[in-house]
Amino acid sequence: MTTEMLRIETMNEDERTIIGLLSMKERRNILVRSAQVKQRRIDNRLMKQHLDRIRSGEVAPQVNDADGFPYPTNGRTVFYKNEKEPMIDLGRVPDHDGVHVLRRKDDSLFFTGGFYLREEGEAWEDLLDDE
Questions:
Q1: Long-range contacts for 83-92 (Cβ within 8 Å, ≥24 apart)?
Q2: By the 8 A CB rule, do 102 and 125 touch?
Q3: What are the pLDDT digits (tens) for 46-79?
Q4: Handedness of CA 33, 37, 43, 44 (dihedral sign)
Q5: CA dihedral of 54, 58, 64, 65, whole degrees rounded to 10
Q6: For the chain, which residues make up each domain, given as ranges?
Q7: Alpha helices by DSSP H, the chain
Q8: Which residues have C-beta within 8 Å of that of residue 118, sequence separation ≥ 6?
Q9: pTM of the model
Q10: What is the pLDDT of residue 127?
Q11: How far apart are alpha carbons 34 and 27 in whole angstroms?
């Protein structure tokens, strides 16, 4: 199996010594982990750009699922964790399962996973910890 490698600069002796200590499997694992970290950074940057497009109104929140039926949470008043401020669930972030778009009273948008949301009167575990 041949591999191609693009080097930006020549390896120094310290780098060569350290890499020489690693087995082929360790080298592969390190390369895979390094690529995963880069991918997460790219994913986070793309997610931020996507959310900024929703904030600007360029992309609308997703209001229907694959079956064409509205999500049961759309338009409902919800609360985030143990906060007291009610927010309106506008829908979900397109292409990001479970991420909801909420509107605060001041008309700003807030994004969170659905498992952090509760309806009025519904207990949140942090409420019990605060008492």
A1: 86/120, 89/117, 90/61, 90/63, 91/60, 91/61, 91/62, 91/63, 92/61, 92/62
A2: no
A3: 888 888 888 888 887 877 666 767 777 788 888 8
A4: positive
A5: -70
A6: 13-56, 77-130
A7: 13-21, 24-56, 125-130
A8: 78, 79, 81, 124
A9: 0.56
A10: 47
A11: 11
